[in-house]
Structure formats: C-alpha cells, structure tokens
C-alpha cells in the first residue's frame, strides 16, 4: 500500500480532525498557563513597586525629604537589589538612589514609565536592562522614582514561552504520529476485511472475516458481514434444494408430457385420438404452470420486498370473505363450515397474499376432511403475549407431530396424500406468507384433525 | 390491494388450471350449439404489441380465428404509432418491449387522451408489478404464461366494456332475466328469484358480460377481488348454486359452461 493512500483514508482524516481539535485545546491551555505564570510575575512587579512606594510615603510623611533621601540611600545600598530608586532635584539632578540619571521617558497618566538603564552592567547575552517605574513630583519640585529592573521577568517570560512552544511542537508531533498509527492500525483491519471480501467474491465462499473479539465497531462489522454471508449461504442452500426439487418435480411431468406426445405421433391414427392426446398434454401443461406460479408466489413472499406496500388488513373481514367463498364448496363436499369470528383484529399486511394463504389452508381442509366432517375458520383477537390469530381447523386425518416441520418444505407431500391432486407447495406458500408478515405458523392437533394458525405479532398502539 | 383496483384488476391467469384448456375452433363444447365457440358476436379491432414473433403469431392467429381483426406491432415505437393513428377496440400490450417498454407506451397513449382499453401481458407477475401496470393506465393484467381462452375472454370483456361504459343503468336485461340494481331484485319471466348478496353480484357480473365467456379467475377477481387460483372448485360451486336458482324451473338454461374456459350467460 503506497503511503499517499493513507491521506485518502477516512481514518486518517478523522485522525487529522482530531489532531486539529486537540491542538486547539492544548493552545488554549498553554495560553492560560502563560497568563497565570508570566502574567503573575508582571503583576507581582507592580505590586512590589506599590509596596515600596507605600513604605517611602510613610517615611516622607514622618521625616520629610531628608528622611526620604536617607531611606533611599540605605535601600539602594543593598547589593544586587533589582528595585530602582532615584530622588532628584526640580532640575532632575540626582540626589540619592541607584540610578545615575533621571530617565528620559514621558510618564503615562498613572505616572508609569518604562526605560532602559543606561549604566547597567553588561549582560552576557548583550541584552540591555529594561525597567518599569512610577514617578512622583514631591512638594518643592523634587522628583521621586521607584521602579524595578524587569530583565529577569522578561527572561522568565521568554523561558516560559520557549517551553510552551516546545510543548506545542511535541503535541503536534506526537498527535500526528498517533493519528498515523491509529489510522494505519484501523486501515490494516479494514484491508483484511477487503481482502477477505475479494476472496469470497472470487469464489472462496466458505471464507469468513476474522473477528478479533474486541467488540468494537470493526468487530461488529466483521461479525455482521459473517452473519450476512451465513444467511446468503443458507439461502443458496435453500435455492439449490429448490432447484433440485424443481428439476425433479418439473422434469418428471415434462418427460411424461413429451413421451406421451411422442407416442401419440407414432401410434395415433384417428383425429379423436389426436384430440384426446392434445387434451391430456394441455392439462399436463396446466399442472406445470400451476406449480410454476405457486413457486413464483413463494419466491415473491420470501423476497420480502412487499413489506413496503403493506396496508392495514382486517382479519375478520378477510375471514368473512373467505368463508363466503368457501362455504358452498364445503357444503358440496358434505362438510360443515363454521365461521368463528371472535374479534376484529387489524394487522399490517398484503390482503392478496393473506387471502391466498387462507385459501390454501381451506383447500387443504376441504381436500383431506372426509364427508360429515367440519371445517372451522376462526379469528381471535390478541390475548396476553399472543397476537391476533386466524386459523383453519378440520376434522381430517391431521398431520403427525413429527412431520409438521417437513410438510412446510417445498414439494413435500405426506405418503397418505400422494394419490390426491396437489403439488406440495400449498403449505410452503402459507409458511412464506406467514414469515413475510412476521407471523408464526402453528400446527396443532384438533382431536381429530388439524388446526393451522397464523399468529401475528402484536401491533404497537396506533 | 383491495378497494382501489376492485373490479378492473386482472391477472393470475398463469395457473388457470382448467383441465381442458382449449384454443379455438370446433373444440368440444357443452350447452347450445350454433354460436361461435367463444361467445362474443361482434368482431373487434385489436392491436397486439408484442416483440416475441412466435408469441405474437400465436396471439394473432388465435384472435383472428375467434373472429376479430388483428394488427401486430413488434416494438413500442410502431405500436405507439399504430395505436395513435387507428381506432382500435382493445390493445394487447406486452409489458417488456425493446426500445420503449409497454408501460411507457400506455402512459403516452393515456397522456394523449386515448381511452382504448389495454390488456397488459407480462412475465412479471408479482402483486406490485400488477399494481404498476394498472396505475400506468392498463385496464387488465395477465401474467405469462396464460391460457389462450383466458386471454380471449379478457380481451372480449374489455372490448365489451368500452361499448357499455357510457351507459349507467339501474336495470339489466338479458332475455327474460331482469335485474333491478337499486332494489337488488332479480326476476326471470316475471317470477321473482331470491339471491344471496354474493350470488347477486355474481349474476350481475355475468349479465354485464352477456354473451361473453367469463373465466373462473375473472369471476374471482371481479366478484371477490382476489387474484389467485383456488385449487378446489369453489367458483364452480358458486356458479352451480346460482344456476340452480336461475335455470332450474325453466325449460331453457341461461348459464352455460364453456369447457376449458369458463361460463357464459346467454338468453
């Protein structure tokens, strides 16, 4: 991976953004530190000067000018003091103090002046001594200056500034390095995912993403991708099973159809024989078409795309319509038909597919219940944790509990029912429709017979 | 799916599993004899827009043999031109056409104010596809593969509707059968017949399509508003019950079974 690719990665951009924000906050902190340290020294200078002035003012009040001069002389004599004093005549001739000349600077309205000390000893770095002072005019025209050499302060401030600058530089360096490291690490893992994906796309379908068990987002992503791949594999296996079943269940009647036509071509002589053969061929083709459209309906329900067009469906209205449609057929078959509508539940769904599912259940009930039996179409409202439910019960032979799972599979028909018409897709479609609606397909004993129920999930409050 | 498309939605013909599905001429039939096999007695002008040459030839041949005048366009552009320049009774449009697809053709025609009934043919049979076809201006929707008898019945029902559409009646008459749509009463030869609500709607649909073959799926779609094929003979039982009430006490039957296709009400 060439290095400039790093610059385009999301992680690097995030790292950069983070670095920027981090720098900004560090800068704010450094400014605060500077203000608290260097600023504190500066304020301290001013406070020291103010304290000196307070002391001198006390002396002057008690002992007038001579006292003042005496104190100034005494204090100036303290070796290596950084406090500056000067008492001068009205013509600025120095009388006492540790400055040789009255500085040539104009005071600001509060009496503060800043100046360079002319006769200061030479500094090793060649810098000059700067000072900050307050000037007063005493009664009689005498002048007083109290100040402090600020060179040390300035040195300190410079030192603080330099340290802060270094700190800043270090932050940038460490932050950038960290960002690169982190994004490289993340990119490495994403790279691994991409590599696996490419392998899978090029045919290694059993490959799965490595999961580091850290539980972070990338791990979740890898886990979800793996779950998705498992799902796809599951669907593909299902698809293969269907293809096999379709191959078997369509090829058999197609072969029958073809050989019958072939035999007709060889053997049939009269027009009636031809006609009969063609009739049979057409009904065989119609059976095939029936299987085909049932398979398509199942595929449509299983694709789940129809959930977008779901509407409110009244289960009781649906049951009434289906009862209306099937009651005469049931009576014709010598069966009792009971519509047992206990509630008026509304579910979200596709009316047509639900109707088709109920029709399939009723078709089965009518087909397998011996005459004198009874078919019940019931609707129950939600009760407790159980959602609304629509069920079809019959008094036929039922389905043994062990085989209930298998009859939902495509093309599966119980041995006992092989002789009756049907393609083994009816319950598969009901199951697919149930799953499309998030409903559960339940099969229970009706003692005797079978109850098949679609139990819908509970709907939230409207 | 309910409501909005009631009464005009089509479809589900793929598995129209009647055991004797038939194509046409001189086929064995039940009921009375001298009329043509499929009961529509006025020739219609039909345009078939279908790109598959074999399917088109099959359609054109079948429709011609049923007594109609048929034109064929092999793509959407030609179809649009022909439909715009000639006066057809029914358009049979394949949904997927090269160049301009069937949906667009019908949308353009409807946009230009053409009211000709359209039957969509499509290999796309899902509920959503059907809704899209009807929304684009189709009047009926038949999924491939279909039985020709189903297609013919639907085409003739559409052509019929065009001629009857303008008249809003409160009374229907077929021979000695009389239906009062407001009072919900039915009489045959002056004798009142009591019908259940569903039987009434069934008879109403048959009477509105007098002389036409109506298939089981057409009845299920238009009377019950469902678009699937019940495996058992539910529709036959309903018709048998209606027939009991309409025909039993009278010398001549009015509801005829057309083998391999459906039913037909005739005076």
Can you describe this structure?
The complex is a heterodimer of chains A (462) and B (267). In chain A, α2 (10-76) packs antiparallel against α3, α4 runs antiparallel to α5 (271-303) and α6 runs parallel beside α7 (351-368). Chain A has a 5-stranded antiparallel β-sheet with strand order 2-1-5-4-3. A 5-stranded mixed β-sheet of chain A has the order 7-9-10-12-11. In chain A, 55% of the residues lie in helices and 15% in strands. The longest helix of chain A is centred in the N-terminal third of the chain and has 67 residues, at 10-76. Chain A has 3 domains: 4-155, 2-Layer Sandwich (Beta-Lactamase); 218-303, Orthogonal Bundle (Helix Hairpins), CATH 1.10.287; 308-455, Heat Shock Protein 90 (2-Layer Sandwich). Chain A has helices at residues 4-8, 10-76, 151-201, 217-267, 271-303, 315-332, 351-368, 426-436, and strands at 83-88, 94-97, 112-116, 130-137, 143-149, 311-314, 336-341, 346-349, 374-380, 389-393, 440-445, 450-455. Chain A has 8 helices and 12 strands. The longest helix of chain B has 17 residues, at 148-164. With 267 residues, chain B is an alpha/beta fold. The two termini of chain B are 35 Å apart. Chain B is elongated, with a radius of gyration of 18 Å. In chain B, α2 (76-85) runs parallel beside α3 (102-111). In chain B, 35% of the residues lie in helices and 19% in strands. Chain B is built from 8 helices and 12 strands. Chain B has 2 domains: 3-164, Response regulator (Rossmann fold); 171-265, Arc Repressor Mutant, subunit A. In chain B, strands 2-1-3-4-5 form a 5-stranded parallel β-sheet, with helices on both faces. The A-B interface holds A 275, 279, 282-283, 285-287, 289-290, 292-294, 296-297, 300, 305-306, 309, 311, 321, 324-326, 328-329, 332, 350-353, 355-356, 359-360, 362-363, 366-367, 421-422, 426 and B 1-2, 12, 14-22, 28, 125-128, 131, 143, 145, 147, 198, 224, 226-234, 237-238, 240-241, 260.
């Amino acid at each position: 991976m060439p290095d400039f690719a790093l610059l385009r990665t999301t992680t690097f951009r995030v790292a950069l953004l983070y670095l920027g924000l981090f720098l900004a906050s560090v800068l704010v902190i450094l400014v605060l530190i500077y203000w608290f340290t260097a600023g504190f020294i500066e304020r301290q200078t001013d406070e020291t000067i103010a304290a000196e002035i307070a002391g001198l003012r006390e002396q002057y009040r008690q002992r007038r000018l001579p006292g003042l001069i005496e104190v100034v002389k005494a204090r100036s004599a303290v070796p290596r003091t950084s406090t500056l004093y000067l008492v001068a005549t009205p013509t600025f001739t120095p009388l006492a103090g540790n400055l040789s000349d009255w500085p040539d600077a104009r005071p600001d309205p509060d009496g503060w002046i800043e100046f360079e000390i002319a006769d200061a000893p030479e500094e090793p770095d060649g810098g000059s001594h700067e000072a900050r002072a307050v000037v007063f005019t005493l009664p009689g025209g005498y002048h007083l200056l109290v100040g402090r050499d600020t060179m040390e302060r300035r040195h300190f401030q410079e030192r603080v500034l330099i340290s802060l600058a270094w700190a800043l530089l270090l932050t940038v360096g460490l932050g950038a390095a960290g960002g690169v490291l982190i994004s490289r690490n993340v990119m490495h893992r994403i790279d691994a995912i991409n590599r696996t994906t490419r392998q899978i796309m090029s045919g290694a379908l059993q490959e799965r993403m490595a999961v580091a068990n850290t539980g972070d987002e990338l791990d979740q992503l890898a886990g979800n991708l793996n779950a998705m791949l498992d799902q796809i594999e599951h669907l593909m296996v299902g698809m293969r099973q269907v293809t096999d079943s379709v191959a078997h269940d369509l090829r058999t009647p197609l072969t029958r159809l073809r050989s019958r036509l072939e035999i007709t071509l060889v053997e049939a002589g009269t027009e009636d024989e031809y006609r009969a053969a063609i009739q049979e061929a057409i009904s065989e083709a119609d059976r095939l078409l029936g299987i085909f459209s049932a398979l398509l309906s199942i595929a449509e329900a299983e694709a789940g795309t129809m959930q977008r067009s779901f509407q409110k469906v009244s289960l009781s209205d649906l049951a009434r319509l289906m009862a209306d449609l099937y009651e005469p057929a049931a009576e014709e078959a010598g069966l009792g038909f009971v519509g047992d509508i206990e509630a008026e539940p509304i579910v979200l769904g596709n009316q047509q597919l639900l109707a088709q599912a109920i029709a399939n259940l009723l078709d089965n009930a009518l087909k397998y219940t011996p005459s004198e039996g009874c078919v019940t179409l019931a609707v129950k409202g939600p009760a407790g944790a159980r959602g609304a439910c629509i069920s079809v019960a019959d008094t036929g032979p039922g389905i043994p509990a062990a085989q209930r799972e298998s009859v939902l599979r495509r093309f599966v028909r119980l041995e006992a029912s092989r002789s009756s018409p049907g393609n083994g897709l009816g319950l598969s479609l009901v199951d697919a429709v149930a799953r499309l609606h998030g409903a559960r397909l339940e099969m229970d004993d009706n003692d005797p017979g079978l109850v098949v129920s679609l139990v819908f999930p509970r709907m939230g409050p409207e | 799916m309910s409501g909005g498309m009631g009464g005009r939605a089509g479809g589900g013909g793929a598995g129209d599993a009647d055991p004797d599905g038939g194509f046409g001429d001189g086929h064995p039939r039940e009921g009375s004899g001298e009329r043509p096999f499929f009961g529509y007695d006025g020739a219609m002008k039909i345009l078939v827009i279908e790109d598959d040459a074999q399917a088109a030839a099959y359609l054109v041949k079948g429709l011609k043999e049923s007594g109609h005048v048929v034109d064929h366009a092999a793509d959407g552009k030609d179809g649009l031109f022909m439909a715009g320049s000639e006066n057809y009774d029914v358009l049979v449009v394949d949904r997927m056409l090269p160049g301009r697809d069937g949906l667009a053709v019908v949308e353009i025609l409807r946009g230009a104010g053409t009211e000709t009934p359209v039957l969509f043919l499509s290999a796309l049979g899902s509920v959503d596809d059907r809704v899209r076809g009807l929304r684009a201006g189709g009047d009926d929707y038949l999924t491939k593969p279909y039985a020709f008898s189903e297609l013919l019945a639907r085409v003739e029902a559409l052509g019929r509707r065009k001629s009857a559409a303008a008249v809003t009646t409160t009374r229907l008459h077929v021979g000695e059968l009389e239906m009062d749509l407001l009072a919900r009463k039915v009489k045959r030869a002056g004798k009142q017949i009591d019908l259940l609500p569903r039987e009434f709607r069934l008879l109403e649909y048959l009477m509105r399509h007098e002389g036409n073959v109506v298939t089981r799926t057409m009845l299920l779609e238009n009377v019950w508003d469902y678009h699937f094929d019940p495996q058992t003979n539910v529709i036959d039982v309903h018709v048998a019950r209606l027939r009991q009430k309409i025909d039993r006490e009278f010398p001549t039957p009015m509801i005829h079974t057309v083998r391999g296709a459906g039913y037909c009400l005739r005076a």
